[in-house]
């Protein structure tokens, strides 16, 4: 019988999807692509089906009227030929990750749309490779509890969090990935000192395409300019989040939940080269860092193989070609989103879900030309101020807070536009 791990790749048509496919392509003896999902991009999905012949493909968008009928027919033909079952609708995502045949779930859907499937995977005790940071930001405590109760394994593939994870001693890696092992460690956050002699974490940020610019100079920047990330090729939403530093804000919250930290234990440092992907500092003054060329195939391969190492065709680091490594403090006046995220985490309850939903609405409105770049943080701030922040101790409460925040943020967008 095959010992290959069967992978369900959520968001296969996106940037994380593309990097994951390449790692699987390089390791056919260890992994088989069991299932893939896409939302609107049927052409890319057809190409993936034709190459990998997965057992199942989900098209999560079920708005038949808006769908390109010809592209759907072409997809069906390719799927028939490959022996792939096509299932349509968002509910199919949850069914898919719950299947007994699935060993590994790569959560590469963007935004809150990925929340339910991450939970379904956790409830079924799967090994989850988490790229979808929004799911964790929205639901931190509830998701961590679900992972713990159902014996799931949660491995970060966001490059910074994967770097921090790689810098941890083996025993802590086990505790972070399999939350059940955490119970045997002291409550580090409460004790104000971190596990195993760790004193703090340095979370690196590129600074995005607008690093060094004043707030006033950003009033007229376009979505195209905001998407020109200096180092990474990524989807549109995360690229704009990087430009506003909201990506780092989301990552601050992500790190707090993954590694059981408080924001004050995390030093956000701008590192424009994106070569050091984050660092862990110990009480004896040692600082361990994970370095690599900015290429998501590296963290994805590291998590797919964990605790082993597997190969990938990621770009290699040429130390002699580097023009120095630089570090500076973030400018929280020009980029208030990072501050807003830290405050939302400290406020607790549904505040991070409100922050995330408002950001998603504001970023989409910026892409659609309804509001300016500087309005993104204004919509988020006003949403946090005007939304009543409830407790969020269940998935249902989080989903409700997300929905309310969207209504509130959409109203604010109308006022700003
Ligand atoms: N790209 C990167 O290097 C990194 C990304 N991440 C995180 O990974 C996630 C994915 O990012 P990225 O790959 O860049 O994004 P992309 O925009 O490139 O891809 C997003 C994927 O999600 C699918 N999708 C979009 N909307 C929905 C929906 N409503 N329901 C179901 N599926 C949907 C898309 O389908 P379709 O295209 O078919 O419409 C696509 O497959 C984000 O949370 C991001 O923050 C984290 C670290 C690095
Ligand atoms: C590749 C990755 O993990 C992204 O989150 C990336 O780090 C974004 O870069 P910024 O540091 O500019 O937000
Ligand atoms: Mn990242």
Compose a concise summary of this entry.
With 417 residues, the protein is an alpha/beta fold. Helices cover 46% and strands 14% of the residues.
Protein architecture, described:
Catalyzes the NADPH-dependent rearrangement and reduction of 1-deoxy-D-xylulose-5-phosphate (DXP) to 2-C-methyl-D-erythritol 4-phosphate (MEP). This is 1-deoxy-D-xylulose 5-phosphate reductoisomerase. Mn(2+) binds at residues 158, 160, 251. The protein is of the alpha/beta class and 417 residues long. It has 2 domains: 5-157, NAD(P)-binding Rossmann-like Domain (Rossmann fold, 3-Layer(aba) Sandwich), CATH 3.40.50.720; 188-291 and 318-416, Rna Polymerase Sigma Factor, Chain: A, CATH 1.10.1740.10. The chain has 17 helices and 11 strands. Helix 2 links the parallel strand 2 and strand 3 (56-59). Helix 5 (115-123) runs parallel beside helix 6. The longest helix has 22 residues, at 395-416. It is globular, with a radius of gyration of 21 Å. 49% of the residues are buried. The model is unreliable at 189-193 (pLDDT under 50). NADPH dihydro-nicotinamide-adenine-dinucleotide phosphate binds at residues 11, 13-17, 38-41, 60, 108-110, 113, 131-134, 158, 232, 234-236, 238, 296.
């Amino acid at each position: 019988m095959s010992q290959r791990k069967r992978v369900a790749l959520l968001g296969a048509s996106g940037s994380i999807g593309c990097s994951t496919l390449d790692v699987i392509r390089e390791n056919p003896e260890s992994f088989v692509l069991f299932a893939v999902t896409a939302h609107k991009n049927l052409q890319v999905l057809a190409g993936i089906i034709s190459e990998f012949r997965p057992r199942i493909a989900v098209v999560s968008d079920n708005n038949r009227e808006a769908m390109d009928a010809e592209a759907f027919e072409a997809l069906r033909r390719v799927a028939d030929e490959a022996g792939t079952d096509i299932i349509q609708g968002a509910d199919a995502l949850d069914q898919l990750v719950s299947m007994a045949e699935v060993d590994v779930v790569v959560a590469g859907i963007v935004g809150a749309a990925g929340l339910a499937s991450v939970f379904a995977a956790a409830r079924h005790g799967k090994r989850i490779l988490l790229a979808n940071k929004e799911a964790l930001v929205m639901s931190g405590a509830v998701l961590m509890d679900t992972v713990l109760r159902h014996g799931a394994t949660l491995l970060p593939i966001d490059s910074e969090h994967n770097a921090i994870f790689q810098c941890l001693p083996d025993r802590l890696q086990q505790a972070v990935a399999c939350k059940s092992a955490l119970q045997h460690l002291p409550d580090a956050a409460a004790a104000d000192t971190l596990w195993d002699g760790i004193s703090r974490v340095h979370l690196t940020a590129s600074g995005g395409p607008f690093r060094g610019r004043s707030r006033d100079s950003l009033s007229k920047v376009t979505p195209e300019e905001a998407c020109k990330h200096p180092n990474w090729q990524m989807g549109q939403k995360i690229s704009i989040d990087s430009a506003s530093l909201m990506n780092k804000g989301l990552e601050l919250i992500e790190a707090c939940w993954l590694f059981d930290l408080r924001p004050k234990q995390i030093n956000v440092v701008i590192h424009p080269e994106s070569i050091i992907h984050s660092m862990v500092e110990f009480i004896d003054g040692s600082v361990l860092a994970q370095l690599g060329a900015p290429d998501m195939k590296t963290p994805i391969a590291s998590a797919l193989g964990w605790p082993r190492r597997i190969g990938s065709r990621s770009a290699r680091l040429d130390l002699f070609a580097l023009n120095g490594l630089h570090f500076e403090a973030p400018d929280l006046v020009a980029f208030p989103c990072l501050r807003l995220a830290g405050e939302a985490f400290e406020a607790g309850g549904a505040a991070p879900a409100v922050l995330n939903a408002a950001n998603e609405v504001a970023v989409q409105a910026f892409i659609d030309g309804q509001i300016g770049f500087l309005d993104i943080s204004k919509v988020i701030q006003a949403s946090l101020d005007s939304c009543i922040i409830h407790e969020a101790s269940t998935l249902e409460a989080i989903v409700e807070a997300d929905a309310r925040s969207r209504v509130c943020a959409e109203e604010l967008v109308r006022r700003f536009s």
